[in-house]
Specification:
This protein has 303 residues and is of the alpha+beta class. 43% of the residues lie in helices and 17% in strands. It has nine helices and eleven strands. The strands form four sheets. Strands 1-2-9-10-11 form a five-stranded antiparallel β-sheet, covered by helices on one side. A two-stranded parallel ribbon has the order 3-6. The longest helix has 66 residues, at 2-67.
């Protein structure tokens, strides 16, 4: 009799333990499910705010173009913005991508642009990088299969790599592609990124927003130190290239290709960060302005 009672007690304890474990598991699963739902909700809210932010930044760019035809870094669009939104926070900044050297300029309409290659070599020198990197980039962009000298690279070189691949023979869609090119190590690409871009077609550089290295590369009579002083003192920039030419004088303007320069821009990059609950999102969007209408969003991606 006593043994039966002991067995019954053990059975009850086992049932209680199993029931407690099941209850704990159910509660844990419920918490996980609740967090997943909350994360999905926050992610959806973040995505909606990001879309609204892209539209809002586009309106700022359109309004700026309606007001004036010159772009510089003291304008409203160039001011980063951080705003609280319901249950979250959003911040964004616009960058003038024509303040950077467009790598796709090296090959125009299927032809190598000698002047742009020379400017890119000057930029590489100013950044203390090997100038032969220009050869590999030209080979990546041009349509032929002939390497640009001993440091170029066409299909034969890329097929011998691990993994094997082919030269694109097309314009860059993103500067991240540089890491696929011969000689472009991680450190070299990181050094280049603040100064270069990959825009569709050939574009001039905006002298009102360009950094000192890019300006010195495009104004060959200017030293880097002189370009740095020019950037530090330019304020609202120049209304026309003639104003810049008059300020520099003929000696420092020597060798300048005015077609490679501008005082206004059409391409801008929006960097947008959104926070909702435990969800953090970072979005990029590239705009192209055309006239005074709302700009086109060429692409938008979440990092």
């Amino acid at each position: 009799m006593l043994g039966e009672r002991g067995i019954a007690l053990v059975t009850v304890l086992l049932v209680v333990a199993i029931a407690s474990a099941l209850a704990s598991h159910i509660v844990w699963r419920q918490q996980v499910w609740t967090r997943q739902v909350e994360n999905l909700r926050d992610a959806a809210q973040g995505q909606a705010v990001a879309r609204a932010g892209v539209d809002w930044a586009g309106l700022i760019l359109a309004e700026d173009r309606r007001k004036n035809s010159v772009d510089h870094l003291n304008e409203t669009w160039a001011t980063p913005v951080a705003v609280p939104v319901e249950y979250g926070r959003a911040s964004g900044a616009l960058t003038d991508m024509q303040g950077r050297f467009n790598l796709n300029n090296l090959v125009r309409d299927g032809q190598v642009s000698i002047d742009d290659v020379a400017a890119y070599r000057r930029l590489l020198t100013l950044l203390e990088l090997p100038t032969e990197l220009a050869d590999a980039l030209v080979d990546w962009l041009d349509a032929d299969g002939v390497p640009q000298g001993p440091h170029g690279a066409e299909d034969a070189w890329y097929l011998a790599q691990d993994p094997p691949r082919l030269a694109a023979n097309l314009p860059l869609a993103d500067v991240a592609e540089l890491s696929w090119l011969r000689g472009y190590t991680h450190d070299i690409v990181a050094r280049l990124l603040p100064h270069v871009t990959a825009l569709p077609g050939a574009t001039p550089v905006n002298v009102n927003t360009a950094g000192a290295h890019v300006l010195a590369a495009l104004l060959p009579a200017l030293t880097l130190e002189q370009a740095q002083r020019l950037v530090a003192e330019r304020g609202d920039g120049w209304r026309t290239l003639a104003d810049l030419r008059a300020e520099l004088g003929q000696a420092q303007w020597a060798g300048v290709r005015e077609a490679a320069l501008a005082v206004a821009s059409d391409y801008f990059l929006l960097t947008l960060e959104v926070e909702f609950g435990r969800v953090r999102q970072r979005h990029l969007a590239l705009y192209r302005r055309k006239g005074q209408n709302a700009p086109d969003v060429l692409w938008m991606k979440r990092l």
